[in-house]
Amino acid sequence: MTQKALPIINFDRCDRCGACVTGCPEQALTMTKAGPVFIQPVNCTYCTACEGFCPTGAIRAPIKVRWALEN
Hints:
Layout lengths: L7 E2 L9 H5 L5 E3 L4 E3 L10 H5 L5 E2 L11
């Protein structure tokens, strides 16, 4: 089974403002006392919207580009 990539949440930087939760178009996040968590990770499309909404940079959605080489 392949694990789906999810944005990375840095709880030390998170101020629990909820911008990522309200801005998530897929409603994949919820806010807890510890900070945002992916309550519906299967809904996350990795659109990176949460990264843009976060005023403290606590959410990062790194994208790795891999080039396929022809044999």
